[in-house]
Amino acid sequence: MYKLIESADYDTLFAAYLADHDHYSGGVFSEYDLIISTLPEGDILLQKLADARGIASGVRPRYWTSFYWRLVEHITGYTPRGEQTPLNNTAIRWHLYTYLYRHGDTILADPAHPLHPHLHQHWPDATRLTADMTRRLWHYSGQLANLYSHYLNQRPDWLDAWQHDPPPALDDLLQGDGLKHQPAWLAGHYREHYQQQYRLWHATLATTYAARAERIRTFWHKLAHDDAARDKLPPYIPLYAPTNLTETTLRTLIRLGEYSEVRLYHLTAADGEYSDIVDSRWLRRLKLRDPARAEAQHYDHGNTLLSRYGKQQRDRARLLHAYSTDDNTTQHDAPAITVSNLLSAVQADIRSQNETHTAAAPHDAHDDSLRIHACHGTLRQAETLRGDIIAWLNADPTRRLSDILILLPDPIAEQSVLRAVFPGSGDYDGYRLPARIVGTPDTGTTSLWHSLAGHYTHLNGRYDAPTITDWLHNDDTAQSLGSDHEHIQRITTALIQAGYKRGFDSEHLQQTLHPDDHDHRYTYTYALDRLIAGVLMPDSDDDNRDTIPLPGLSLADLPVLEALAKHANRSRELRRKLAAHTPAQTWLADIRDTLHRDYQHAHDSTAWQTLNHALTSLEQQLSAHRDLAPQNEQLYLPLPFILDNIETHLSAQQNSREPSGVITIGGLTGLRNLPYKLIAFMNADHDRYPARQNDERYNLIDLDRPRPGDRNREQEDLAALLDSISRAGEAYWIYYNAAEPGDNEPRLPASPIQELLQYLDEQRAKAPRHYHITHPATPFEPDPAETRPAPLWHNVRQTLARPPCPALPFLTLCHAPLPAANPADPETLPLDQLIRDTLRSASTYARAHNISHDNHDDTPAAREPLAASALDNYHINDTINRALEEGRDPAARLARLPLLPAGISGNILLAQRLAENQAHYRALLAQSGCTTPPPLAEHTLDLGDTLLTARLPTSGNTWPRLSARRQKAKHQYRYWLEHLAWNARGTGGDSHIHYADGDEQLRALPAEDAAEQLRTWLAVRRSAQQQLWLAPIELMPAYLDNLGKKDGADKNRLLIHQWIDDDQNKADSGELWRHLWRGNEAILADHIAAALATYAPLLQPWLGHRA
């Protein structure tokens, strides 16, 4: 039996439901479905049920559409497809796009085609679909899907009529005079659209709809004639507090009531009958325009707020009472509201449908039960609300964060501000107010989705270094590769060093290059191959190899490189699937497999479960549709549209469970009927609330007479405001922008809020307006409404006003002798490492003491260079010179390194640089008396405590060196140490160095002297590892040169100060130097001078051996 149970009080209605639950449930472990309007509403009901009965695990909240279709499939013998129904919006959209895409060329080319007007209106000059049209076609398919979904839910009789060919005329289908009042040309336009919509429906979805209707007919036939089918029905079907009810749904419920106990629990807006009242504003205009009609019809608006906000409630009550009788309706009287403050007075007026309680309510300036706050911007709203909540919580120790609900017209648009003021985690400590935003994916879900989607979104993109490195730095991406953020950062830095700029591989990059341009040195896979070769074969540098290894990584990095290589192979496979027009269902399955395979680390997280649920839901939507239309199984949809649709679906799905103990934030219409002690409504601005109706020019429902259940966004928003006011237990606060921070122009609140203010002003004309508070524009200005400033801004203001205190030194600068070697702990050290560690002493100290410092590297380049910079020219010349010294072909080597500019300009530059450097090297060989360069080989020098390795000449007494560097101290130091290593073997001689701006010759010296000087520089390296080395090597030659001059002391002081102030003169990072010496600026120059006085003579032998 169908029964309507009504009450205006939430707790009273819940008590009635609880009594039926006890009667029909059959025990605490019995299961049944509870039909609800929103998932958060279901959570509240389950929580209250668990509090009352100790357990609620057997009650399953469901939406009506999914419940009804599961029931149909169960009775008719089919396997339910989860929670999804056929002809859902997603399936309709994908189906329409697939059909129009596949037949688009035929439709556009044939003006006589029934569907030609659909596409011709968008592309009047086109005769076939092109790739550029797909995005607009996808958008158009979404508009049509929304349209057909509206018809399916609100005008199913139209779709029944469309099953006939031809269908009835639009004039016969419409009720009322909506079409007759239109101009003739506009009426003709609507009739034409009607025919177009029917034809498309008939061509694409009529078969599916017919199969759906046939299954529903079978369902009712079995219930009427089959006892076994009736036994499968649930004995108890409750529908709790519906907010949007159509006549079709109500008639279905009443029909189900012939076989089961159907209970509809209606939360009314007021006591008594209110379905016959009219809008107070409309009645006011009518009395001015036609007072006789207003008097004759006996129109009454009851309570002003109820009549203005409650049109949706009135329509719902009118619909329910049209099908109710005394036998199937039970009215539960709500307890009287005790008027103790302004909010309770307003609620009592609405409940009783009069306007007497508000006027008689006590006038208390400290009454904060109903407040309307005028602020400057959403951030100030949130900050003011935060302070008000703290004061409200402190006023009563029984109040909890879970007693608070914050509503906004669009919480998704403001989620960054909301999360900044109300963090998602933490405990309330008088400062933090943790909150959960309902209906929006949290940051963890967003991060996981961006990581998962990155496997697919980058396939046909530019695949440039900034985009890919940013994706790899995502924590979920790093963990899916078996790494962490810090490790993957090191790998991406190495990828950039290996030359990665743009393009996935040669095939991908070739799509954007000239057919004759095959330069692929800057692609992702080429750089990755260099890194892998650098780990597995670091010494293999054969000119015949395709890839030149890049050393620098270790075997510990190999698992991550292997994961990146597997990802590269997987990307190649996906690109092949992309080119093969893979069906949408296959893409969804692939995305789901990737989530399960690569993101197992997040399996137990809420983010993973949310994303998995979204993918499952989409698959079930398509499967439910496919079951009724198997001929349409292979839906084609471009991969970017599938990903966009998943992201939209992810954002739109409601959270099924809300955590306890935190504030709940959500959309006004989605959380409208929930009882909370404190409800706050933010962003009640004129341009945000109420929502305007969408401009749906193809929707013909607007021409029809309105029916109960028709979706009207403005009426929904007004109804939600009325419900939220009625459900607030202790306080209801409204916040709006009285001025925008950008222009400071005064603004009025939303029209419904203005009407609320007008209502309060009229009822309390002689009382002060303590319920309307205007706050200052910034948190720094005094605010009489605040008991104290917000702690954050108060601390900021106090910090700014406090005089700066001197910073404590980061390190204690000291001057100690060089440490002795430890023969018991010898090490093998490359000569290049010794040179780097002594030249870049700040980095040496930071690395030895695990001091991390961000060098603020620039964003990697997004495209390959088309011209060589000064640094590029240096690397090119250096590579050519090294190849010439080693007797190798420079051109073959440079062709495989990402140094030359891309394209033809690189070939031209290579020819120029080869000619110049080969001429210089021939001249250098002639000058040094050599006919060929001396052969080089790896040698090891035993220096007692250290085995020093270096590539040195194996024969001859002259070593010609061609350098791409300028004749600066830091470069001369490098060649001096290499000269020392060569002579320390006992087979050395003279070194002839040709710099880019001059020549230098270093004379031979005894092997023992050279070895002793190398030991001294090894001691310098040990000292730099133990304490900050304050004798920069790049200053030593100039410092020694100034000592012999008349004003040498002054010049050395100037030299030191210039080095401190100018980063260009430093061999190491200036930012790192400042990070290490901070706090010692006053004594820094003196310490550097003392260190140079002691250690600058270490380079005196170099000056003595220069020819």
What does the secondary structure layout of this molecule look like, with pairings?
Blueprint: E1 2-7, H1 10-24, E2 32-35, H2 39-53, E3 59-62, H3 64-76, H4 89-109, H5 116-120, H6 134-154, H7 156-162, H8 170-173, H9 184-204, H10 206-225, H11 227-232, E4 236-240, H12 247-256, E5 261-267, H13 280-289, H14 291-296, H15 304-309, H16 311-322, E6 329-331, H17 342-352, H18 357-360, E7 370-375, H19 378-395, E8 404-408, H20 415-421, E9 435-437, H21 443-457, H22 465-473, H23 475-480, H24 485-497, H25 506-510, H26 524-536, H27 558-579, H28 584-598, H29 606-628, H30 639-652, E10 663-667, E11 676-681, H31 713-727, E12 728-737, H32 751-763, E13 772-774, H33 791-801, E14 827-830, H34 831-839, H35 841-848, H36 870-885, H37 890-894, H38 904-928, E15 936-942, E16 946-953, E17 958-962, H39 969-984, E18 990-995, E19 998-1002, H40 1007-1026, H41 1036-1043, H42 1048-1061, H43 1070-1077, H44 1081-1095, H45 1100-1104
Parallel strand pairs: 1-5, 1-6, 2-3, 4-5, 7-12, 7-13, 8-10, 8-11, 9-10, 11-12, 14-16, 17-18
Antiparallel strand pairs: 15-16, 18-19
GO biological process, one term: DNA recombination
Keywords: ATP-binding, DNA damage, DNA repair, DNA-binding, Exonuclease, Helicase, Hydrolase, Nuclease, Nucleotide-binding
Domain RecC C-terminal: 827-1042
